[in-house]
C-alpha cells in the first residue's frame, strides 16, 4: 500500500419528495482516494446535511478518525 491521500467532497441531492413545495437540497460527505483516477467513493456519510459546510465538516471528522494521515503535498 502506498501513501493514502483521502479527500473529502460534498455531494448535493434533493431531499425526499413531498416535504414542501420545493424539494430542499441535502448534502452528503464522501471520501475518495486522490490517487484513484476514477475517484471511486470510498466512504459516504449517511446523513442529510443542511449545508455544504456541515457535510464537509462531517467528512473531515470522519477523516480524523482514520488511522492513515492525509499525505502532505511536499515533494
Ligand atoms: Zn454526515
Briefly summarize what is shown.
With 75 residues, the protein is of the alpha+beta class. Helix content is 19%, strand content 29%. The chain contains one helix and three strands, in the order E-E-E-H.
Description of the structure:
The chain has one domain. Helix content is 19%, strand content 29%. The chain is built from one helix and three strands. The chain has one helix spanning 52-65; strands at 6-14, 25-33, 41-44. The longest helix has 14 residues, at 52-65.
Task: Give structural attributes.
75 residues; alpha+beta; 1 helix; 3 strands; elongated
Question: What does the secondary structure layout of this molecule look like, with pairings?
Answer:
Layout: E1 6-14, E2 25-33, E3 41-44, H1 52-65
Antiparallel strand pairs: 1-2, 2-3
Bound molecules: zinc ion (ZN).
The site of zinc ion (ZN) has 6 residues, from α1.
Number of helices: 1
Mean pLDDT: 85
Count of extended strands: 3
What proportion strand? Answer: 25-35%
Q: Given the C-alpha coordinates, what overall shape results?
A: elongated
The biggest sheet, with number of strands, parallel, antiparallel or mixed sense and barrel status, is: 3 strands, antiparallel
Instruction: Domain count, please report it.
Output: 1
Structural class: alpha+beta
Q: Low-confidence stretches at least 5 residues in length (pLDDT < 50)?
A: none
Amino acid at each position: 500500500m502506498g501513501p493514502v491521500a483521502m479527500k473529502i467532497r460534498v455531494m448535493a441531492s434533493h431531499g425526499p419528495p413531498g416535504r414542501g413545495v420545493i424539494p430542499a437540497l441535502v448534502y452528503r460527505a464522501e471520501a475518495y482516494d486522490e490517487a484513484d483516477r476514477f475517484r471511486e467513493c470510498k466512504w459516504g456519510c449517511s446523513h442529510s446535511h443542511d449545508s455544504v459546510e456541515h457535510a464537509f465538516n462531517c467528512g473531515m471528522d470522519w477523516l480524523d478518525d482514520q488511522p492513515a494521515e492525509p499525505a502532505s503535498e511536499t515533494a
